[in-house]
Protein: non-specific serine/threonine protein kinase
Amino acid sequence: MIDMEIIHSFQCLISFQQSDQYSNQARLQFTQNKINLLLNTQCYEIDISLKLMLKWKCQENKLISLHFQQINIQAGNEDLLILKKHLDCKATYVGIREIYDNVIIIQQSGIAKTCTLKSKLDEKMYFCKCYKKQQVEKYKIYEQLFILRKLVDFKNVARIIDFFESSNSYYLIFEEMSRVHYHGLSHEDIQSMMFDILCCIKVLISNRIFHSQITLQNILIDKEQNCRLIGFDHAEQLTEENAILNSLMLNMAGNAMIKLYQYNSVSKDSMSIPDYGNSLVQGLIQTKLDQQINIEQALSHEYFEYFDYNSSPMKQQQIVPKLKSFITQQSLSSQIDSNI
Structure:
């Protein structure tokens, strides 16, 4: 019954591809999974899925129409924005330049290009990952979209906004994020980052998702200074909980923590980690399942005891370390992953 509930309904003008005139008065309404077009005594029902290809038309920072399945629809900007928000990442959009411009390439590595672009609708900057079709299979893009949509409300995962497809590429649009400058971080900054990373892993574990590349390269920061995980082309939805894969994600978090303190220590061979940091690292990188700490133990570890959860991320209050613990390369029981 919930799927049948009408979410929004509005008047529109409709024409079919053979006509350029918006001469037919109609009503568009949509439910969770369907779009219904009511034209005179006829009802056109369209399933909402990634197989549905839509093209929006924007003029003077406002949506004026959309086109799909040989149908052109013209309506007011506010109604079209409500419809678009519902369809974002549930349907496939074409014509990315109708909505976005000012593309600036940041990085090209592996199978994807990373760039920033500007929305014509709200004039805000966004983050985009572009995949060439010849280098990635569609089902992998769909799997990534499924996971990102599932985690869209979690603050430490990159927030997906739009999904576009062209003749040769796929485009995943995210809220604007930027790289973290790892050098010059304070102990409190690293605490904040580690807490965000571990919170993210907790959500991944609870949703039975495995991410194989939890590295500093895949940790970005948003405007509110929250750390956000990207790189979900290296993630998969599991059918059941997997203790070994959960352990691997905790191990990756431990290696990321080591790297953060290495970047901000005078000597990379001997690092000073306040607040029982050595104990947390050792617990995370432990390779034996019966000796490694679990995610709940990690989040409640003494390392975070004086951490101010109410202050702004990456701008924590200055604390007086109650203990200086030392960690050396020789004391680590597993090799540090240098691929960040």
Notes: Residues 5 and 31 are 6 Å apart (CA to CA). The helical segments are 77-87, 138-150, 187-206, 243-263, 277-285, 295-299.
